[in-house]
């Protein structure tokens, strides 16, 4: 059962009481879940706890790269179908908060159910030490629910202790000038990345993100990279490195949508909105 808790004008956080979610996601269901197709819009220095993946970079990237286990695969049910997106752990006081795309948690007037997160998911399997973590809070911006704006949303993990202590976490709260070099992460099932694109492997791309007007509208701008990051990559973090402030880097946005042949877009983060989104109801 989903209990709707309306907080303020910015958010509609809910508590996800799918207590059987972990058992529901059997190995077979996880293997058969489909990477969600991102919305399209047209004129109509990481340290320990990482997995090393070879040869999944585009030109200009390193041939070896450390994929942080703060990035993982999100599994959920929507309209009776099994889907996947990408999500990641962000740095918060509670240590059990993550971020993904809004369209992974809410679409067609419905919230997703039986949501779980598998940090460091690799080669089609959860990590043996972290496994599957139940997501008990979904916080989707009201601006997305009503206007399809702000395609990023927060998730709360049901984890004993602080998950970020096990995985690390991405910082946030810095607004860079455009362009900025970013690393994107995700679990694509298709797209332009030079990687397996099998939905089982965390892929990355390194390059410049620029702020671009979407559809030529001056009041609609977002971060853009010249790559289709693929279905299943939705919600994957776009991360910039800023010296030693946070060794995992700082979040610029998350993979949101595709516009024609212009590549993938991530809505510019509103940090005031994020503060509201992570104001979880007390239990």
UniProtKB/TrEMBL annotation:
InterPro entries: Peptidase_S1_PA (IPR009003), Peptidase_S1_PA_chymotrypsin (IPR043504), Trypsin_dom (IPR001254), TRYPSIN_HIS (IPR018114). One of its GO terms (molecular function) is serine-type endopeptidase activity. Residues 52-283 form the Peptidase S1 domain. This is 12118_t:CDS:1. Signal peptide: none annotated. It comes from the Eukaryota. It comes from Racocetra fulgida. One of its GO terms (biological process) is proteolysis.
């Amino acid at each position: 059962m989903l209990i709707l808790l309306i907080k303020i004008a910015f958010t509609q956080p809910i508590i996800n009481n799918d207590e059987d979610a972990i058992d529901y996601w059997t190995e077979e269901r996880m293997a058969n879940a489909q990477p969600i197709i991102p919305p399209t819009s047209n004129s109509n220095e990481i340290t320990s706890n990482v997995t090393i993946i070879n040869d999944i970079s585009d030109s200009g990237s390193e041939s070896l790269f450390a994929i942080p286990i703060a990035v993982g695969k999100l599994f959920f049910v929507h309209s009776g179908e099994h889907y996947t997106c990408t999500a990641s752990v962000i740095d918060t006081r509670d240590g059990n908060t993550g971020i993904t795309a809004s369209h992974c948690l809410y679409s067609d007037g419905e919230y997703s159910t039986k949501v779980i997160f598998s940090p460091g998911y690799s080669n089609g399997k959860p990590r043996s030490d972290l496994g599957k973590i139940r997501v008990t809070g979904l916080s989707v911006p009201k601006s997305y629910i009503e206007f399809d704006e702000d395609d990023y949303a927060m998730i709360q993990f049901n984890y004993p202790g602080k998950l970020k202590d096990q995985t690390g976490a991405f910082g946030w709260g810095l607004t860079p000038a455009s362009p900025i070099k970013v690393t994107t992460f995700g679990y694509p099932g298709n797209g332009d990345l030079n990687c397996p694109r099998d939905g089982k492997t965390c892929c990355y791309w390194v390059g410049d993100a620029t702020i671009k007007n979407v559809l030529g509208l001056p009041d609609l701008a977002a971060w853009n990279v010249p790559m289709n990051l693929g279905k299943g990559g939705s919600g994957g973090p776009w991360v910039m490195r800023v010296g030693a402030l946070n060794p995992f880097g700082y979040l610029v946005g998350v993979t949101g949508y595709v516009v024609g042949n212009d590549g993938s877009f991530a809505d510019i983060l509103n940090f005031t909105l994020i503060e509201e989104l992570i104001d979880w109801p007390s239990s």
